[in-house]
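step 4 of 6: structure.
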Amino acid sequence: MNLIWVPLLPLLGTLIPLLLGRYPRSMLALGTAFLPAVALGIVIHLIPQVMAGDYPVVSFEWIPLLSLNISFFLDGLGLMFCLLILGIGLLVILYARYYLAEGDNAGRFYASLVLFMTAMLGVVLSANLIQLWFFWELTSISSFLLITFWSHKTEARKGARMALTITGAGGLALLAGLIMIGELVGSYDLQRVLASGRLIVENEYYPVILALVLAGAFTKSAQFPFHSWLPQAMAAPTPVSSYLHSATMVKAGIFLMARFYPVLSQTELWFAVVSLVGLTTLLVGAYTALFKHDLKGLLAYSTISHLGLITLLLGLDTQLAAIAAMFHVINHAVFKASLFMAAGIIDHESGSRDMRKLNGLFRYMPYTATLAMVAASSMAGVPLLNGFLSKEMLFAESLNQHTLGSLSWLTPLLVTVGGALAVAYSLRFVHDVFFNGDPIDLPKTPHEPPRYMRVPVEVLVVLCLLVGILPDLIVGDLLVAVGASLMPEGVPEFSISIWHGFNIPLLMSFLAVLGGVALYSQRRHMFAFQAQFAEVDAKYAFEQSVQRLVRGATRLQEFIDNGSFQRYTFWLILAVGVVLGVPLLELASAQGSIARSDVDLVSIGGALLLIVGSVATVMVSHKRLLALVTVSVVGLVVSMAFAWFSAPDLALTQLSVEVATIILFLLALYFLPQRITLNHLSPARIVRDLGLATVVGALVGTLTYAMLTRPVNSISEFFTINAKTGGGGTNVVNVILVDFRGFDTFGEITVLAIAAIGIFKLLAGIRMFAPSADMDGRAWSRDRHPVMLMQISQSLLPLALLVSAYIFLRGHNLPGGGFIAGLVTAVALIQQYIANGVVWMRERGDLNFQWFIVSGLLLAFLSGAGSWIFERPFLTSWFDYFYLPLVGKFELASAMAFDLGVYLTVIGATLSILANLGKLTTAERPTPGGQS
Amino acid sequence: MELIYATVVGVMVTCSVFLMLRGHTFAIVMGLTLMSYAVNLFLFASGGLALHKPAILGETENPTDPLPQALVLTAIVIGFAMTAFALILAIRARADLGNDQVDGRSAPTDSLATKDKEQREKPRATEKASGGKSR
């Protein structure tokens, strides 16, 4: 269980700097370093176990159904990266203690830095693909936070945005690739993926997977043509550049390629793409680095070049190339981190990073200069230093490879050119800054930094030397362990030593040094040549393309979203037509296997009424009252159709809803314009709308016909068989509603309640205008509550309530139930409102409809939740038969309580909708004589 | 019978779509109402058309499919809630915007409402307009 602490301790450590932010800097730095140091101790403690091939694993199930587990494992590759991340991380924490200015919020800085450390550890330790991706994106986000640390600087914000956009986009591609891998292998467990052998490579989607994964790796590791974000990220404080943008984060892409090396590489596609991209990046980076005047700019492009070198090594088809790549990961991290720190010291103590101003600093800071010169020599590949060894390996492997077929001879030549460029820019770094005359108007007089600011540089430079002189002793075993991760079939024998005798790689090294010196000595001509090209500011180009994208998106949005509801409706219905039409085109014929049934006169009559009613509604839609009449004709015939086609429940429901709807419309008419003038309808518009309407109507009609003439394979038989035995009722429709599909019904009454509450809210505080007369100037009738209506409706009320109680009670066995009974009750009560007015009703007890809704929902919920007491799932129903004298045998079912909940909700919702609107008419109506 | 049924559903959908494409709220609410009738008939048809075979056990030998009926029953009630909501929305829109156009652009004909709106807002000139946006 030790392993879980490695990512967990730094995660907890994120909080410490936030808490210690007010304390002195040294205490803050110590507090921040404590937990990562413990994590490093754990990793070191685990080294023997990993070396023995017994990889520590820790795993927790999270959402096993989605293959989402929290799992970590530590193999050789992860071990190497863990040591780099934690080791260099601790040095950077120490360095930053002296680097940050008094005014900087060091607590926030350290918190982001340790968060990044956690993310990076998560990437290299993850044993689950999705989890790996999560940490991958977390590195991008924490990197964003660190680049924008000095958020008052424009270039910091722009650089951070650019870095996040490019690496984030790569991350999305990576996610797609990882999901494809996971689905292909059938597991998101990394160890199972790595054990899948040639499965992925032989799959037809291999090129897609490879492209997606490499897109993630190349963007993160700043490979050409995605490299432009890295120099912009140099706007970050130098400790960040040193840690993220040279030693660790940019190596995440390399890590990814190494991680999937066993299952994705060893194909021609891999070799061609990876080696060519690596080679291009190597040359472009090295060439550009030569011309940078900014110290950090030079180092940034040099980093790009070295990342290209590592990528190239991963793309070479020789046995030792991958080992050499991993060796260079260590070497580059060590010398480049120290160089960045040295550059930071120079910036810190002299106030400038411009190499045209920085000259002859050796006199002012001889000690730092010596350290920087050793590290720069390592970067150039000078013997006795670690950089030399891995570069020699590159030269040797470039001679052995056959990656580019008959053009393979180009590779050794080009890497030698790259080597020469590296020597030239390293020479420039050393000579321009520390020698070459005197400083030119620097803001400060340079001097040596504080003692402990140099310690991290010293440690790294000593490592350069140690690895350079005793390579096998220091990193030999580690590289074997790393090799075991990359090549599970067996690591080839290799030994790293300083002296291999006089051979071609040595000659290439010699040529590179010679060429580099020659290039540097002729730098004046080269700068003159380079000056002919206009300098392209990557930041500017990026911002421009982002703005173009935004402009395009805005134009597109303005075209689609022009504020016209009519237009949206048109497109929506058109889309429905397309969705309906395409499958119908594929149907061979509308007529299915079932023969048509006979036609009777009643059906023809009903159909004619429906058609005439619908068409008439369209024709008279501008005459409101007439349109209401025609639409209610349609509604009534529909309810009759339900009755005719053996659906008594539906007929009852439709009928009572019809009454409620028409009353609602009548109330609403009062508030809507009295006369609708058809605003200018162009013929083209009518044709267009009519055309679309006809097409959609024809499609729906065809669909209906096709459906009616085909046999249905339905699950309904289950309901019919089990209604009596399982639900205790003979009205199958009602049993489905309150029992089998009770949960659906519960959802539906909730929707009803939400609609009613929404309407209540819409009507609250409304400023209605109330015309005192109609359009023709006729005043409203003064006879508001006719006596006849009052008398009849009052005597009807008990009768109606009785009917609704009857309908409710018999619902389980005969047509009826909560919905219908609720509607009947609601209509009966509404009738009282109409006949007697709101005031009269209020005098006789103000009904709180919201209370009805809430209690109905609560009852329905409780009747379902009751089954929890008996340890059954929600809404498990219960019923039994009882015998009472006089009454006889009767049935009690828990579904009855549920249905009562439905009943109450329906009453509450319907009344709330109608009465709330009705109250408005009362309040707003002009009141002759002062009565309400 | 099936042909007639399908034709009726098709005609109802045609009429409702045409109404829904109109510009004033009343026609759209009418269209919605017609559409919910048509959709209910369509859903109901998925259980087949049977005469005198209600889904009540013991009444007939071979009861019709009860499932679409259960679905349509709730659909009717929810359809009512939706129609009501749309209607109240139309009323609210008219109260706030002063017209009954779905695009919120004032129709020149609705002079009564405009006049009324002016009258109401004159005394409350200092008060903030109640959420009404002017386009």
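step 5 of 6: annotate
 - Residues 66-97 of chain B form the longest helix (32 residues).
 - Residues 107-113, 123-135 of chain B have pLDDT under 50 and may be disordered.
step 6 of 6: archive
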